[in-house]
């Protein structure tokens, strides 16, 4: 069934919001689309870098030098070591939160690339370790365990290298979807950050034992330069840029408003908010500097487009950290990193858009509605009428921006929602579905199912945008 009109009244929607639901800021005109940027250039740079990482081995290995199995094993071990070292640099660079990478690639592509590169890195590290141990054991006529002991005791920096390999294996295991879902976000995030430690621990053995990097020369210099470049990007993206942002804008909590029994909106004020280059649909990583919250940061999207006076995030209470946010008091300091993300109207590929939200996933889509051209469509999935958030604002925006809005209420197995969320149902609501960009935000199950339905309905994958917050 669709949910059209009944909604609890009397709920305050924020400072200076007139008429109980209308946003305080005027609705701005739709922004022009942004092109794909330098994605092809970055892809070319990645593959050229990979070739450059392996090329020194190729140039230093004359034809016919791989005479037997032992030579092949050690050569393969060195190649996989060079590949692993390069991929580790790429992984950490993608974790640097460097603005240019996000603008060119987009959050979803970075997240997908980070996952794929991480899996390849794990295989390369394990192959590097296994191939060299077996190759050296054959060369020195030693047992596998005896050769491991020899590496740890007679080769410089090998203990730290083994520790780095262990860290990368552990991080790789936490990235497995089944494991990831069982870990609290805070624990997963902090385990993920140990990749920086792996970068440092794995550094030394490459130069003290690496056949291609041991001798001074252009190859060694280039490898060191790559490390320095990644470290500079990391320091800039993780430390310098956030410090500049927070010193400039000095955000504080202005108000905390209950949108539903398990959802709150947090309003923030600060300095020079009109100078933040912000798009609806983007998110920040928020660290609330009060007791119980200061030691962790979480990504939350803004639920209203920037208006120069206040910022708003809408949060569903699902764990210990989000429960503590209910107790925030006006005046509490906030440390923010961002804005981040390309889940915005500016990155669409078509003139019109369809937005599909589930539960609190309405937050970035509600902000995006202010910047989409007229003619957008919104399908809002919720289990019960009480789970519909920001209803008055959505209805007002539907009129102001000439947007079609459908509230689809019920569980996934109910006949009404099941009929609507099907290829035929979507085409009936939105006849020009395949000529629109589709933005999805909500629980993982809803998003995965919606992507499958959209693909069956003929929507190209490049026109489907997902909200991602992993890095």
Distance between the termini: 37 Å
Assembly context of the chains: single chain
| Residue runs with pLDDT of under 50 for 5 or more positions | 1-35
Q: Say how many strands there are.
A: 12
Range of strand content: 5-15%
Largest sheet: 6 strands, mixed
| Number of individual domains | 3
**Percent helix among the residues?**
40-55%
Structural class: alpha/beta
- Rg, alpha carbons: 26 Å
Mean pLDDT: 84
Adjacency order of strands in the biggest sheet:
1-10-9-8-11-12
Morphology call: elongated
Number of helices: 17
Instruction: Note the run of SSEs as H and E.
Output: EHHHHHHHHHHHEEEEEHEEHEHEHHEHE
Question: How would you describe this structure in keywords?
Answer:
disordered N terminus; elongated; Rossmann fold; 48% helix; alpha/beta; 17 helices; Elongation Factor Tu (Ef-tu), domain 3; 471 residues
Explain this structure.
This protein is α/β, with parallel strands linked by helices and 471 residues long. It folds into three domains: 39-244; 250-340, Elongation Factor Tu (Ef-tu), domain 3 (Beta Barrel), CATH 2.40.30.10; 345-466, Nucleotide-binding domain of ferredoxin-NADP reductase (FNR) module (Rossmann fold, 3-Layer(aba) Sandwich), CATH 3.40.50. The protein has 17 helices and twelve strands. The protein has helices at 39-60, 69-94, 99-105, 107-139, 144-154, 158-174, 177-182, 185-192, 195-201, 203-208, 218-249, 320-325, 362-369, 391-400, 415-420, 423-429, 444-456; strands at residues 2-3, 252-260, 263-269, 283-288, 298-301, 311-316, 334-340, 353-358, 377-382, 404-409, 437-441, 464-466. Strand 8 (353-358), helix 13 and strand 9 (377-382) form a beta-alpha-beta unit. The protein is elongated. The relative contact order is 0.12.
């Amino acid at each position: 069934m669709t949910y059209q009109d009944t909604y609890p009244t009397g709920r305050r929607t924020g400072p200076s919001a007139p008429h109980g639901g209308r946003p305080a800021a005027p609705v701005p005109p739709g922004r022009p689309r942004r092109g794909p940027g330098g994605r092809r250039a970055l892809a070319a740079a990645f593959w050229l870098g990979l070739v450059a990482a392996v090329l020194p081995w190729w140039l230093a290995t004359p034809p016919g030098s791989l005479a037997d199995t032992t030579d092949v094993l050690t050569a393969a071990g060195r190649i996989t070591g060079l590949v692993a070292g390069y991929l580790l640099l790429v992984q950490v660079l993608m974790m640097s939160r460097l603005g240019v990478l996000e603008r060119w690639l987009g959050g979803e592509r970075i997240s997908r690339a980070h996952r794929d590169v991480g899996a390849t890195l794990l295989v390369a590290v394990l192959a590097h370790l296994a191939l060299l141990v077996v190759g050296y054991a054959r060369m020195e006529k030693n047992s596998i365990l005896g050769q491991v002991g020899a590496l740890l005791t007679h080769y410089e920096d090998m203990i730290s290298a083994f520790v780095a390999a262990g860290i990368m294996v552990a991080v790789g295991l936490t990235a497995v979807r089944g494991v990831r879902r069982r870990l609290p976000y805070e624990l997963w995030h902090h385990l993920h950050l140990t990749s920086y430690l792996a970068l440092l621990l794995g550094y030394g053995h490459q130069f003290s034992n690496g056949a291609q990097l041991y001798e001074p020369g252009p190859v060694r210099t280039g490898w060191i330069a790559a490390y320095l470049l990644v470290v500079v990007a990391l320091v800039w993206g993780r430390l310098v840029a956030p410090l500049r942002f927070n010193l400039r804008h000095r955000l504080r909590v202005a108000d905390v408003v209950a949108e539903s029994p398990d959802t709150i909106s947090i309003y923030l004020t600060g300095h020079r908010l009109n100078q933040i280059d912000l798009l609806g649909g983007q998110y920040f990583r928020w660290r609330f500097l009060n007791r119980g919250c200061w030691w962790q940061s979480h990504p939350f999207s803004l639920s209203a487009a920037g208006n120069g006076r206040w910022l708003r995030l809408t949060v569903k209470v699902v764990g210990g950290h989000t429960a503590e946010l209910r107790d925030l008091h006006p005046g509490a300091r906030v440390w923010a990193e961002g804005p981040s993300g390309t889940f915005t109207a500016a990155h669409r590929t078509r003139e019109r858009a369809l937005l599909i939200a589930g539960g609190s996933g309405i937050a970035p889509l509600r902000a995006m509605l202010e910047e989409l051209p007229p003619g957008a469509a919104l399908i809002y999935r919720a289990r019960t009428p009480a789970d519909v958030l920001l209803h008055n604002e959505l209805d007002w925006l539907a009129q102001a921006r000439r947007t079609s809005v459908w509230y689809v209420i019920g569980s996934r197995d109910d006949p009404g929602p099941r009929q609507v969320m099907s290829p035929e149902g979507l085409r009936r609501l939105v006849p020009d579905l395949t000529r629109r960009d589709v933005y999805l935000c909500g629980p993982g199950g809803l998003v995965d199912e919606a992507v499958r339905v959209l693909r069956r309905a003929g929507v190209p994958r490049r026109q489907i945008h997902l909200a991602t917050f992993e890095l």
